[in-house]
Amino acid sequence: MALDRAASCCAAPLAAAAAHFSRAERAAMDRALGAAARGVRGANPLVGAAVLAPDGRVAVGRHAGAGTAHAEVVALAAARARGFDLSAATLLVTLEPCAHTGRTGPCAQAILDAGIRRVVCAAPDPTALAGGGAQRLRAAGAEVRTGLRAQEARALNARWFAARAAGRPFVTAKIAQSLDGRVAAADGTSRWITGPESRAAGHAIRARADAIAVGTGTALADNPRLSARTPDGAPAAHQPVPVLIGHRAPAPDSHLADSARLLRYPSRDLAAVLADLDSRGIGHLLVEGGPRLISAFLRAGLVDELAVFTAPVLLGAGTPALADLGIATLSGAQRWTPDPTGERLGAPERLGADTLVRLQPSPPDPPRHNHSTAPHHGED
Ligand SMILES: NC(=O)C1=CN([C@@H]2O[C@H](COP(=O)(O)OP(=O)(O)OC[C@H]3O[C@@H](n4cnc5c(N)ncnc54)[C@H](OP(=O)(O)O)[C@@H]3O)[C@@H](O)[C@H]2O)C=CC1
Ligand SMILES: Nc1c(N[C@@H]2O[C@H](COP(=O)(O)O)[C@@H](O)[C@H]2O)[nH]c(=O)[nH]c1=O
């Protein structure tokens, strides 16, 4: 329903507004997209904004993660700090400004309050909660054009949009493996395969996730705390909700059994688990393992981001990082591609002796056409 509403609100202006973007507006939107790409994935989409002054100067901002100021607000503050005349400026944003009050206020109102009269947004916001910003701006008399770099903006958040449309959290799966793809040695020992820098990066993901899930196999083997901690062991400011999935009960007196916040799902129905987490306001779920639970998520196409930490450690035997994915032949392989976002724009990260690769599902192959008659959805 939400998608229909947003699509109908923005589809017509998209077509009507085609080809009415100046070179300076295109360049400013590219800078907004570049800023968005350097954000962090999670409960919120990646969003960037740029304020284009009449003299051609550009002030850029991006959303730095859940709970922080939205991109428009950051860009407006940067423009104010540089003395831009906002009443004569154009705001370009990669996603339709929100119209709701969440952890921060509605951006559509912040834009109006700043005196901005002209807005260009790349992609509509398909979420029921946040959508409607373009309408609100127009109703207040602002000029709103949409569709500039729409494809790029949609591609940037394709998995996030898909998760929202399905009514489930954005799912990150984390694997900490040896060079030969094992997550535990033959005797079950697994602490630690990866080094301290990797583990600190893993805790940074925990600290921005709303919830962190393991299967009962991991709970029983590892007695994990599932807390987010700084490198010196202190608790991080934000703690994810621990989640346990599977029929078996955690051991009495284990960390998870003792946790008052534990959400326990004696189930293997991952879609139902995710729907319930969504209903509890969990926007970003980190699945830490183990292999059977992550593999079930992968088989169901429910992983939006894979964070794979690989240590230069050989085990030769032990627990493989993944269980059966139901793939019988190479043509059925799941293909993943580096996520070209974040501070390193998709480059692998060296963490001490380890390597971190962040991946997203490869988009399906485009349908083959005999003639190039596919309609062009670009802005010009
Ligand atoms: N290095 C690393 O990154 C990590 C390593 N590990 C290691 O992995 C090992 C444990 O792995 P593993 O045994 O695979 O444990 P898992 O944590 O994957 O738990 C498996 C259990 O998950 C439950 N489950 C819930 N939903 C599903 C589903 N849809 N499909 C299948 N199972 C589901 C089942 O529980 P039930 O039978 O109760 O219904 C199943 O037995 C340990 O040695 C641990 O140290 C674990 C995490 C991370
Ligand atoms: N072995 C292994 C990891 N294992 C993960 O960490 C969990 C323990 O969490 P906690 O009790 O909160 O410290 C464990 O159950 C498993 O999910 N993580 C890594 O970054 N590197 C590693 O080598």
Automatic annotation (TrEMBL):
This is Riboflavin biosynthesis protein RibD. Residues 23-145 form the CMP/dCMP-type deaminase domain. It catalyses: 5-amino-6-(5-phospho-D-ribitylamino)uracil + NADP(+) = 5-amino-6-(5-phospho-D-ribosylamino)uracil + NADPH + H(+); 2,5-diamino-6-hydroxy-4-(5-phosphoribosylamino)-pyrimidine + H2O + H(+) = 5-amino-6-(5-phospho-D-ribosylamino)uracil + NH4(+). It holds the Pfam family RibD_C. Gene3D superfamilies: Cytidine Deaminase, domain 2 (3.40.140.10), Dihydrofolate Reductase, subunit A (3.40.430.10). GO terms for molecular function: 5-amino-6-(5-phosphoribosylamino)uracil reductase activity; diaminohydroxyphosphoribosylaminopyrimidine deaminase activity; zinc ion binding. In the N-terminal section; belongs to the cytidine and deoxycytidylate deaminase family. In the C-terminal section; belongs to the HTP reductase family. One of its GO terms (biological process) is riboflavin biosynthetic process. Residues 333-380 are annotated as: Disordered. Converts 2,5-diamino-6-(ribosylamino)-4(3h)-pyrimidinone 5'-phosphate into 5-amino-6-(ribosylamino)-2,4(1h,3h)-pyrimidinedione 5'-phosphate. Keywords: Hydrolase, Metal-binding, Multifunctional enzyme, NADP, Oxidoreductase, Riboflavin biosynthesis, Zinc. The keyword RNA-binding does not apply. PROSITE patterns: CYT_DCMP_DEAMINASES_1, CYT_DCMP_DEAMINASES_2. It comes from Brevibacterium rongguiense. Its EC number is 1.1.1.193, 3.5.4.26. Pathway: Cofactor biosynthesis; riboflavin biosynthesis; 5-amino-6-(D-ribitylamino)uracil from GTP: step 3/4; Cofactor biosynthesis; riboflavin biosynthesis; 5-amino-6-(D-ribitylamino)uracil from GTP: step 2/4.
